[in-house]
Design brief:
The complex is a heterodimer. In chain A, helix 5 crosses helix 9 and helix 16 packs parallel to helix 17. By secondary structure, chain A is an alpha/beta fold. Chain A has three domains: about 130 residues, Fumarate Reductase Iron-sulfur Protein, Chain B, domain 2, CATH 1.10.1060.10; about 170 residues, 3-Layer(bba) Sandwich (FAD/NAD(P)-binding domain); about 150 residues, FAD/NAD(P)-binding domain. Chain A has 20 helices and 16 strands. Chain B is of the alpha/beta class. Chain B is built from 48 helices and 52 strands. Chain B has a ten-stranded mixed β-sheet with strand order 43-44-45-46-47-48-49-50-52-51, sandwiched between helices. Chain B is globular and about 90 Å long. The chains are: A alpha/beta, B alpha/beta.
Chain lengths: ~475, ~1500
């Protein structure tokens, strides 16, 4: 029934309904309503079924997007779910939080030719939510158990994706995480209005039901579990810790009270949302209510911060970024959402100093213009003389990115090779590190990046670990 | 050494080199043919002289060497003048014994006197051994000075041996003995190291004089023929046109029985089946000598020679020549509602005995007693006849070959499709088609014989429910094991079931050749479908379905020389494709006569497959020896521990094994294959010998999908019926590409070419199939098959992979048009950045190997030179073209952009099929020129007017297209916008059909004629012929060069398309590397290379591709897809859906608005590629492209593919023929000129009209050698006044006699041609406004509507103008007419086919299949005998009485005009009695037009409108 496809000439693009901005500001619920089944089928049928699916080419996990769009359009939901979950351990998460406008949807041929992209992300979410609702999604219990085990350090997206794929292959899997909950950034970093926490919990529960062991509040190295012990326990180890070291603001006044790291701010908010006791929030220091908030940075984390602040009922929320809208690293769609919700953007502006006595009272900034492109092709921002201005700010959030921690030091493994940037160095094309049987995936390898890349790495690591363990088993048998 | 001898020596040396490289040098030939017979059975001199005279006006159907003397062969077959030879015997001092003497006309080795003597000795020994005596040898007097240098160099010693009937045998016996003796002689000589021995004829009845001179030199060369004693009751004559230049005397015709014009398409299958038949052949006449005459078909002959061999043996076994003609070249039974029951039974019998020899054939034959002229089922060659008052029957390819005063002509007719006329020379009686068939049908009780045939269909179509056996999981597991994907299910299977048609796709194939792929590819991927081009036409399996047949005989095939009822003990099926239930029913019916063989094996290492194949063949052999008449090969037992043998190997293995064991005709070979899914797979199975095919797993998949409600509205039975129908139709299409109409002649014919199969494997399993570069062998196949199976059964859950073969999917098959690289290139051309282009080009180079050239690397010719020394970008860009992409496929914006860009840089764009907007003939105000420099002329002839052909620098004849060679096309109604309809002279919204063949090119001499016509209509333009790469293309190219083409384009299989069946895109045609190198090599061999340019296309992306193509012989390059990419194409591959989102390939105005291409981008692309070429040339030490053209020595194979391959050997592509001092590129500056025609004189005489605009009337005598009369004059008028600048009848040219072919081709308004006499084929081809009148002379006694006056394919592609002919037309009248009005008085089959406009009035009987595919225009047929409804093709038209006044008026006006122009008494009589005659007219209206007509045709509609 391929004739049903290619409907873009007749059917306009329609995203799932968004709740009105005013309503959104009042809570941390997801902002989009789900698709109705007919709507999803109709929107899927707009797909052009391209000879070269650029959506897939630009999808980190190479989702077979045209194929499951076809299946959704024909109402073949169970097949669609099978096709979708074949390439992605957590499609419902990617469907929610991927910056599709920079990946599949942004490269959709229909988007490129100004017809409006197929709403791939929303459909992806719809497929898996439908599958959950129908009870098709079962714990990934393997058909055959294998004797070998794998230890995974870090319960974020990379670690969980690897856990899922390894468990399906029959390995015993233990996930170690330093937090009290499994999920890493998915739980503590990303606000609930983008990703409802229940969505993550649901996955964790399924993994647990399938026999994955979760060990929370465990640190590796130092006073915690020795890395050598970890290697001894398992046939292979996967490091998927992510990067947590916030990049600092280096202007005068950066040390004043009221200046916070983005992650501290977001974790506090998320914990609060999960019902935890969070003293730093309750005492008001990490609560934006009634404050003039300035967020410095233009990435997705900055967007999470501004939108969180709005929801905490801040007086004003301003985002300060030194390049323009077109050159920001974060998702355009998030900017749009934020603007709808009342965030002010000061483009082409860089902080000069945080003003105030003990606590911040404002940010002095100056205007920038974009100079010549550097080797990476991005234009370098250059300050405009005499363009200074001041923003009132009793809360300043630094969202300037993250760097890796000192892994060899932390784990007491000087032989663990790292790159100049401090991320773990991989040995060849697989996810193996310089230590035998130790693999790595996610941000700790690529630096701060997207969840979907972490999932991709986790899945690749599972394949690499499987090959490694099977190779060893074969060698032992011979 | 003379030049000729030097040529011969060099040719033979080169030919040996090329043959070693696997190039098939077998020439194709075609020609003019004819027969003169005495209807009163009285031998006389007049018959011989008429034959000789006819030959003299056939020269234009042959080709002449550059020396002006060496022809391709001519000859004549006449009765043996007993007295002439007896006098000779007496002269030698002997007294001849009473009774007939016999003459052997023999070619002996000339130079090697020892060999010559040895031959004489063998001849004498064999004659004497049979008990006959010899009068002696006679050296045939010849005049060698009329022979060209080359012909003389290969000229044999020509002698006659005179044999006495000293045994006093009866004449029949003597003749049979002479045949056996001849076969014995031939066998003995074959055993010796002697090559140049050949017996032209060896008979007591007739003698053949033939050789390699021009036809008109026949009597000069053989003065014997001038002797008055040469009298005869018949003369069969022949002029040959060969596709090579090497004069081979033995291949001149006539052969011993027949002379043939055309080509046997089914040759491969026929030869294989003859081998299979031979073991059972026996006949009383031959007795114990039977083995002496085997093999029946002698090696080294042509297709015609092979047909002659079989014809002869069947005649000798006691069948009269007319019967043998019917058996070998039968009329089509299928859907012929008019065939009498007796004839039907007779032809059913013929089909039960032997597979038809099918293909274009006009045949003249004799067995001494009968003279026969016959035609193939499709009527693809012309054959006209004249009966004179002097009791002569004159038959020939053209009318007017023998000059007969009109007053003495009693009848002028033609031999139609499947027809035969025969003269019983003994009794002096002419049998017309119906009469001879009556006579033959009454020979035996064929009716009761054929009742013994068991029609299986009634038994297998039990209506039993289709079984569903497999669980969903088991089904998936099996599908996985065969490498099937979701893509196969959704893209291929689903449309087949939904639409009962094959899936359609678009753009070219850019995936790796199967042998280069890293992924599992089914064995069918290694088979490329063959197709016909130039030397024979494909058939239109849709519109001409009536000649096609899938009828499948099962079981024991008997002795073809028998004539008894047991030959009809057969099972017959309507189609070889069986559903599961049908297969079960058939299996049950066969019972114990059937043996089932398990085609799976246990995975015991890589030798396991080999062992399994040995077992399968052994079991098959044992079963047949044990008496089984049916075999079933099945891979159904596949399971975790049982791997399926690739069914193609199993079927091919058993078939070839049984043929070798001489057992094949004892059994049917039925296969149940799980891997078979698409049409191509089924075609391969049948092509390698399977009798029936059951795609059981495909059916299970359908059932599974049906169960999931994916075919709403269809029952499972309907789904399966649709799938079967899609396969059936697809099979017909694949056969028809080869021009094969009947599946029994296709089966086992290996009508494929292997790419990447090991030669050893092919020799063992598919003997005779071409596999030039070798490749994967049994070990490799075993490895891949086992790995695929194990992966399938090891997988956790059975989920089909998504695929990636038709469309890109990451992690699956490579596609050469890589997504990221496309964007890089688009950035490069948009930003004018050569650096970015370099990134693109380097990226292309880094892709895994996809094509043959990816395995090659360049070797420097010398030290590198500075880039500045290399010829300029401008120079190189001139060699680039954008290939034919029509204005129907591309959006007008994209089409115009390409044209403007190419014109800007002095390069060329090809218009594609579909006309050009006249607005583009003048540059735009800003100087942009949107007129395509090259105008394409394709089979649809859409918009091909005199003006269109005049406004260009070059004309390209598209014979075939890489994406679908051998197929036609269809522009669906929704794409026919107002603008397109205007350019194509059609109606908006109405479907337009392009036929598979050019209906004026069924043969090589037809192509020569078209080239001639085009060079008349445009006296400056060069002519290009576009071919598609395949093996054997070299000889075709040589033939095309001899036809005076200026450029030959070799298109690769990867070429794009706006819409084609997926299996055609994927599995037909070869890479250009193979075809180009072969064409270059063979043209060099024939010393034709420097006279013709070579161009190539198919996936050329970078400068490197260009340089490699140059080294393989190309001097010009088409870049299609990549130029589209430069304009914004992103390979969405939905061209066929009209939803191109970037406005490149769509007619939707909203989408066209998205077009973002610009001429600058295209210019940048070509500049970058040229710069790339310059850099490469500099690095190789070359300063111009000319320096590397044809230099295959600069190419080296650097990869031999994957380690599991036996060998991948590209040396055959790199073999070089010695150029003999000529350039390896075209040195011809001017175009290859053609001779002038009558128009040279007419134009001189018409100066007052052309210069001063005066009205004129001119008169001339005309003969059949005056071709394309009025065409060049039309060019002059168009140039001076435009196509419609003169009023109709401004200049009248009156002609008396028989006009040659293409009378008034593209004649424009203002020109009127009046012929008093008759005309040949292609009258009014492309008629562009002119008027043509053909009528008998006033003195002629002929009754107009009962006689033939114009030939075949009249008004083909006519656009405007009028034609009145007082007589019948031949076959295919007004095919693809889009605007001309015509009145004729009867016509042959397929009239008004694909017509889209104009009005045709036929005042007499029409042939079969009237109005097939007609979507526009109107026809009126005078149907006095009320037979029209039996003759019309109801698919696209309706017919009715003339109901409305408006249309009656139109009809009447045309008939009145006809009477005024021709004075036809018959038409005048109709007018006189109009009221009574009007009800006898049928008005034929295309269905799609009914609602669109300005003047409705029914009273109701008329009322509704009023």
């Amino acid at each position: 029934m391929s004739t049903k496809m290619l409907q873009f000439t007749r059917l306009d693009q329609q995203a799932p309904d968004k709740r009105p901005a005013g309503e959104r500001r009042g809570d941390f619920g997801e902002i989009s309503r789900p698709f109705l089944p007919d709507q999803a089928a109709g929107q899927s049928s707009r797909c052009e079924q391209c000879g070269i699916p650029y959506c897939q080419i630009h999808c980190p996990v190479a989702n077979n997007i045209p194929d499951w769009l076809l299946l959704v359009a024909q109402g073949r939901m169970e097949e669609a779910w099978a096709a979708s979950s074949a390439t992605n351990a957590f499609p419902e998460i990617c469907g929610r939080i991927c910056p599709q406008d920079r990946l599949c949807e942004g490269n959709c041929v229909l988007e490129q030719s100004r017809h409006g992209t197929v709403t791939i992300g929303a459909i992806e979410k719809h497929i898996t939510e439908h599958a959950f609702a129908q009870g098709w999604i079962k714990p990934p219990i393997p058909r055959h158990e294998r004797p070998q085990s794998v230890g995974i350090v870090g319960g974020g997206p990379a670690g969980l994706a690897a856990a899922d794929r390894l468990r399906r292959r029959g390995y015993k899997v233990t996930v170690y995480d330093r937090h009290d909950r499994i999920g890493g950034l998915l739980v503590y970093g990303i606000p609930g209005f983008k990703l409802d926490k229940a969505v993550v919990e649901r996955r964790v529960r399924l993994l647990a039901e399938a026999g994955v062991t979760f060990r929370t509040r465990i640190t590796i190295g130092g006073s915690g579990l020795a890395f050598a012990e970890l290697r001894a326990r398992h046939d292979a180890v996967l490091i998927a810790t992510g990067v947590y070291q916030a990049r600092d603001l280096t202007v005068p006044g950066a040390g004043l009270a009221g200046v916070h790291a983005a992650l501290d701010y977001l974790v506090a908010s998320n914990r609060k949302g999960l019902g935890d006791a969070v003293p730093a929030f309750d005492d008001g220091s990490l609560d934006a209510r009634g404050k003039d908030v300035v967020v410095i940075g233009g990435g997705d984390t900055a967007m999470d911060c501004v939108r969180t602040a709005i929801r905490q009922d801040a007086r004003t929320v301003t985002c300060l970024y030194r390049r323009d809208r077109a050159n920001m690293p974060g998702s355009q769609r998030e900017v749009a959402h934020a603007e709808e919700e009342g965030v002010r953007f000061e483009w082409m502006a860089a902080p000069e100093a945080v003003l105030g006595g003990d606590a911040a009272t404002g940010v002095r900034a100056r205007r920038m213009h974009l100079g010549v492109a550097d080797s990476s092709g991005r234009q370098t921002p250059v300050p405009i003389e005499g363009s200074g201005f001041t923003l009132a700010a009793d809360m300043v959030i630094k969202a300037l990115g993250f760097d890796p921690e000192d892994m060899p030091g932390l784990f007491g493994q000087p032989a663990l090779k790292v790159t100049r940037g401090g991320t773990l160095a991989l040995d060849g094309p697989s996810q193996a590190t310089s230590l035998d049987g130790v693999f790595a995936a996610g941000d700790i390898v690529r630096g701060a990046s997207l969840v979907v890349w972490a999932i991709r790495d986790g899945q690749d690591a599972a394949t690499a670990i499987d090959a490694y363990i099977q190779g060893k088993a074969r060698a032992a048998a011979e | 050494m003379t030049d000729g001898e030097r040529f011969v020596a060099a040719y033979l040396e080169n030919a040996a080199r090329l043959e070693a490289a696997g190039i098939d040098l077998t020439p194709h030939d075609s020609c003019g043919v004819g027969l003169v017979a005495a209807l009163d059975g009285r031998a006389r001199r007049e018959v011989v002289t008429a034959g000789i005279a006819a030959l003299k006006v056939l020269w234009h159907r042959g080709a002449v060497d550059a020396d002006g003397k060496t022809g391709d062969g001519a000859g004549i077959h006449v009765e043996l003048p007993q007295e002439f030879f007896k006098d000779h015997v007496r002269h030698q001092g002997h007294e001849p014994v009473p009774g007939r003497l016999a003459i052997g006309m023999i070619f002996l080795p000339k130079a090697d006197l020892g060999a010559q003597e040895r031959c004489r000795c063998i001849v004498e020994t064999e004659i004497l051994a049979f008990g006959y005596t010899i009068y002696g040898w006679r050296q045939v007097p010849v005049n060698v000075t009329v022979c060209g240098d080359k012909a003389n160099a290969t000229r044999p010693e020509i002698e006659q041996i005179l044999v006495a009937n000293s045994k006093n045998s009866a004449e029949e016996r003597f003749e049979a003995d002479l045949f056996i003796i001849r076969r014995r002689i031939e066998k003995r000589v074959l055993a010796e190291p002697i090559t140049d021995f050949y017996i032209c004829s060896f008979s007591c009845r007739s003698v053949i004089y033939k050789g390699m001179f021009l036809a008109e030199q026949l009597t000069a060369f053989y003065p014997d023929l001038l002797d008055e004693r040469f009298v005869s009751r018949f003369a069969i004559y022949h002029q040959r046109y060969s596709t090579n230049t090497f004069p081979t005397w033995r291949l001149a015709q006539p052969f011993r029985m027949l002379a043939h014009n055309g080509e046997i398409n089914t040759l491969a299958g026929n030869l294989n089946w003859m081998k299979a038949h031979e073991p059972r052949m026996a006949h009383l006449v031959f007795g114990e000598q039977m083995e002496e005459i085997k093999p029946i078909v002698q090696p080294g002959g042509s297709d015609s020679a092979a047909l002659d061999n079989v014809f002869e043996v069947m005649v000798r076994a006691g069948r009269p020549a007319p019967l043998v003609k019917q058996m070998l070249i039968p009329e089509s039974i299928g859907q012929n509602t008019r065939m009498p029951e007796a004839h039907r039974a007779f032809f059913s019998y013929c089909n039960a005995v032997i597979e038809p020899w099918d293909g274009p054939a006009a045949l003249c034959a004799t067995d001494g007693r009968w003279a026969v002229a016959g035609m193939d089922r499709n009527g693809l060659r012309p054959m006209r006849f004249t009966i004179t008052a002097g009791d002569l029957l004159i038959v020939g390819s053209e009318t007017g070959m023998v000059k007969v005063p009109e007053a003495e002509v009693i009848e002028k007719g033609r031999v139609g499709p499947g027809q035969t006329i025969a003269v019983d020379l003994e009794h002096g009686r002419l049998y017309r088609d119906g009469e001879i068939k009556d006579l033959l049908a009454a020979r035996r009780k064929y009716g009761s014989w054929t009742r013994r045939i068991t029609e299986l269909d009634s038994l297998v179509k039990t209506g039993a429910p289709e079984p569903v056996e497999l669980s969903a999981a088991d089904l998936r597991r099996r599908q996985l094991a065969y490498g099937l994907s979701m893509e196969d299910m959704e893209l291929i299977l689903q449309p087949m079931v939904e639409e009962a048609k094959e899936a359609i796709g678009s753009m070219g194939d850019d995936t790796p050749l199967a042998v280069l792929s890293e992924h599992y590819r089914g064995l069918h991927h290694f088979f490329r479908q063959n197709f016909s081009q130039v030397t024979n036409p494909p058939i239109d399996s849709l519109r001409e379905n009536r000649v096609m047949s899938l009828k499948t005989r099962l079981g024991n095939l008997g002795n073809i020389l028998d004539e008894d009822e047991s030959q009809c003990d057969l099972l017959i099926l309507e189609s070889p494709v069986l559903s599961n239930a049908e297969f079960e029913a058939m299996r049950e019916y066969m019972g114990k006569t059937c043996a089932e063989i398990d085609c799976t094996f246990a995975p015991d290492g890589e030798g396991a497959l080999k062992d399994a194949l040995a077992r399968i063949r052994r079991e098959a052999e044992d079963a047949v020896r044990g008496g089984c008449t049916h075999l079933v090969l099945s891979d159904k037992p596949v399971a975790e521990d049982r791997i399926a043998v690739p069914m193609i190997l199993a079927a091919g293995g058993v078939h070839s094994h049984l043929v070798r064991e001489r057992l094949r005709t004892w059994t049917s070979l039925n296969v149940r294959s799980g891997e078979a899914l698409d049409v191509h797979y089924v075609a391969v199975l049948i092509g390698v010998g399977a009798t029936t095919v059951n795609a059981y797993l495909a059916q299970e998949a359908i059932a599974d999908r049906h169960g999931r409600d994916l075919f709403p509205g269809l029952t499972l039975a309907e789904c399966i019926r649709n799938y079967k129908k899609a396969i059936d139709q697809g099979l017909l299409k694949i056969m028809s590409k080869m021009g094969i109409a009947v599946i029994s002649s296709y089966r086992g014919g290996y009508n494929f070419e292997a790419i990447g199969l090991s030669r050893a494997l092919v020799a063992e399993f598919f003997p005779g199939m071409t596999s030039r570069i070798s490749g994967i062998g049994l070990t490799g196949i075993a490895k891949k098959t086992i790995a695929q199976h194990e992966a399938a059964f090891a997988a956790d859950s059975a989920v089909l992979p998504v695929g990636g073969f038709y469309r890109f999917r990451r992690g699956a098959e490579t596609h050469a048009h890589d997504g990221t690289l496309i964007h890089t290139l688009q950035t490069a051309v948009a930003t004018d950045s050569y650096q970015t282009y370099r990134k693109y080009a380097d990226g292309v180079r880094r892709l895994p190997p996809v094509t043959i050239r990816d395995l090659l690397d360049l070797r420097p010719a010398g030290p590198p030179v500075n880039v500045d020394e290399v010829e300029s970008i401008t120079e190189i860009r001139k060699r680039f073209l954008t290939p034919g992409m029509s204005l129907g496929a591309l959006s007008p914006e994209a089409h115009g952009t390409l044209n403007i860009a190419m014109n800007r840089i002095g390069a060329r764009s090809v218009s594609g099929e579909g006309g050009e907007d006249p607005e583009r003939y003048r540059p735009r105000p800003n100087g942009d020129n949107a007129n395509s420099a090259v105008k394409q002329i394709a089979s649809g002839r859409f918009g091909v007017s005199a003006e269109y052909l005049t406004m260009c620098r070059e004309i390209e004849i598209k014979i075939a297209q890489g994406a679908k060679p051998g197929e036609g096309g269809q522009l669906p109604g929704f794409k026919v916008t107002v603008e397109i309809a205007r350019l194509r002279h059609a109606t908006p919204g109405v479907t337009l059909i392009s036929p598979p063949p050019h209906h004026d090119i069924y043969s090589i001499e037809d192509l020569a004629q078209l080239i001639y016509d085009l060079k008349q209509i445009n006296p400056e333009a060069r002519v290009t012929v576009k071919l598609v790469s395949r093996s054997g293309i070299g000889t075709v190219a040589a033939g095309v060069a001899k036809a005076k083409a200026d450029t030959i384009l070799i298109s690769g299989h990867s070429g794009g398309t706006g819409a084609s069946p997926q299996t055609s895109i994927k599995f037909a045609g070869l890479p250009w590397e193979l075809g180009l190198s072969e064409a270059h090599q063979v043209l060099t061999l024939n010393r034709l290379r420097h006279r013709v340019r070579l161009r190539t296309d198919g996936g050329i992306k970078t400068g490197r591709d260009v340089v490699i193509a140059a080294m393989m012989g190309a001097e010009e390059f088409n870049i299609g897809t990549t130029s589209l990419v430069a304009m914004g194409c992103i390979m969405v591959r939905q061209c066929h859906s009209n939803t191109c989102p970037v406005g490149v390939c769509t007619q939707d105005p909203a989408l066209r608005a998205r077009f973002a291409g610009s001429p600058d981008k295209v210019v940048n692309l070509f500049s970058f590629i040229a710069e790339d070429v310059r850099e490469i040339l500099a690095s190789l030490g070359a300063r111009s492209l000319n320096e590397v053209i044809g230099r295959t020595d600069l190419l080296a194979q650097v990869s031999r593919g994957a380690p599991h391959l036996d060998d991948l050997d590209l040396n055959p592509l790199l073999a070089q023929a010695d150029a003999g001092g000529y350039a390896r590129y075209c040195t011809q500056v001017e175009r290859n000129e053609v001779p002038e025609t009558l128009d040279a004189q007419i134009i001189k005489d018409a100066r007052p009209m052309l210069e001063e605009g005066e009205k004129m009337q001119l008169a001339y005598n005309v003969r059949n050698v005056d071709r394309a009369v009025g065409t060049k004059l039309s060019h002059c008028i168009t140039k001076r006044y435009g196509m419609t600048g003169l009023a109709p009848g401004h200049v009248t040219v009156r002609l008396k006699g028989s006009a040659g072919q293409s009378l008034g081709a593209w004649a424009v308004q203002g020109l009127k041609l009046e012929v008093y006499g008759d005309a040949n084929d292609y009258v009014g081809k492309g008629l562009s406004g002119g008027t043509i009148v053909v009528r008998p002379t006033i003195s002629s006694p002929l009754v107009t509507h009962l006689n033939t006056i114009i030939g075949n394919t009249v008004l083909y592609g006519a656009i405007a103008g009028r034609l009145f002919a007082a007589g019948q037309a031949g076959e295919r009248f007004a095919v693809r007419n889009s605007g001309a009005a015509a009145v004729i008085e009867g016509c042959g089959s397929n009239a008004c086919e694909y017509m889209t406009g104009g009005t045709v009035v036929v005042l007499g009987a029409v042939g079969a299949n009237f109005g097939a595919g007609m979507t526009g225009g109107m026809a009126f047929v005078y149907d006095a005998e009320e037979l029209f409804s039996l003759k019309a093709n109801p698919d696209t038209v309706i017919w009715q009485a003339v109901q409305t006044e408006y249309w009656e008026g139109q009809l009447r006006a045309l008939v009145q005009e006809h009477v005024a122009e021709t004075q036809s008494p018959f038409a005048a009589a109709l007018l006189a009695d109009w009221e009574r005659e009007l009800p006898r007219f049928r008005q034929v209206v295309p269905k799609e037009m009914l609602s669109r007509l300005e003047h409705p045709v029914t009273r109701e509609r008329e009322k509704a409108r009023a």
